[in-house]
Amino acid sequence: MFFKNIIGQQETKHRLIQSVKDGYIPHARMISGPEGIGKMALALAYARYLSCTQRGEDDACGICPSCIKYNKLSHPDLHFVYPIVKNDKKKKEICDDYLKEWRQFVLQNPYFNLNGWLNFIGAENSQGMIYAKESDEIIRKLNLKAYESEYKIMIVWLPEKMHEACANKLLKMIEEPPAKTVFLLISENPDRVIGTIQSRTQSLPVPPIDDESMAQALQNTVIGSEAPQAHSRDISSESQEIVHLANGSYLKAIELIENSEEMRQHLELFISIMRNCWKKDLKNMRAEAENFAGLGREKQKSFLSYAGNMMRENFFYRLSMPEINYLNQEEAGFSKNFSPYVNENNVIDLINELALAERHIESNVNPRMVFFDLSMKIAVLIKK
Ligand SMILES: [Zn+2]
């Protein structure tokens, strides 16, 4: 991560760069703000800049030995502390036990949140935490001499998730830091970090990303994306709305784009199924079942729940009840012709069949069978 890769945040970047040039290096900073605005990206760019041996005017060089190690986040004087989930079976109890995954995760995109990280390590149902045992690790690492850099840098992601015993040890380290040590605490809830730590850190509140930088970044994301659907789409029409809804969080913006992409795919599939069912086109119904089976379980479930909603919406559409209608433009376009087929005689059965199919997918029934069976039932029901 370089300063030049950060989305927006001109003022904060400038402040960090200037402080390095002025030789003003606070030994502990609290970088705070909501998720998805680039706090980790800023911390990484700052750490890289600080360690770079051929620092440029406003960014690290990218080619010195230090920068090369930063490319893999494997610089021996760069340390990370972050919430993890203990796994006794796999003997994972300290951050370093997850270091490989952590580097991979952070390198793939420094705009992330705790859920994303816990998902990545397959612990989505557990609470992540920085355990008491981590404090020994922190002390051990900081008592090491700096190997290659002038500074040892410790990035603590989400200090609010720290066990009290660990927070107290960290406080001691921040109060009497070993020489040439820099702590970068990245917090979404600085008020939940013990007050004594807060008061001993230089506060760096980070604002949401400005709209213009966000719009620019989204344009680049979609154009640069590998997804074929994205290429053919013009994001500018919906971009403004996404920028508005994202509220300065790049993470949220990406989520919104992915959701709208998924909705589009769902609608396409829905239309195709309804056409096949109407025509009782067995050959295509079978082919569609094959495609459906290849979607993966989460997508399959999300589609079936979408299809259930579409039935409900079409029923209301037919009754001309716009106030309880939530169809977007494309959906409404299809529903104009389709809605007459969803009526009092079949709406409940259609919705029930879709819900049943969702439960079957949930309990691992063969998706081809579930889907084909569902198609046959819909084919009968929509003629009622
Ligand atoms: Zn460099």
State the shape: elongated
Strand order of the largest sheet: 2-3-4-1-5
Would you identify the CATH architecture of the largest domain?
3-Layer(aba) Sandwich
User: Total number of helical segments?
Assistant: 17
Rounded Rg = 26 Å
Low-confidence stretches: 224-233
Q: The CATH topology of the largest domain, please?
A: Rossmann fold
| Tally of individual domains | 3
Helix content: 40-55%
CATH class of the largest domain: Alpha Beta
Structural class: alpha/beta
**Number of strand segments:** 5
Termini distance? Answer: 59 Å
How would you characterize the largest beta sheet?
A: 5 strands, parallel
Heterogens: zinc ion
Averaged pLDDT: 90
Series of H and E elements:
HEHHEHHHEHEHEHHHHHHHHH
Beta-strand percent range:
5-15%
CATH superfamily of the largest domain: P-loop containing nucleotide triphosphate hydrolases
Compose a concise summary of this entry.
It is built from 17 helices and five strands. It is an alpha/beta fold and 384 residues long.
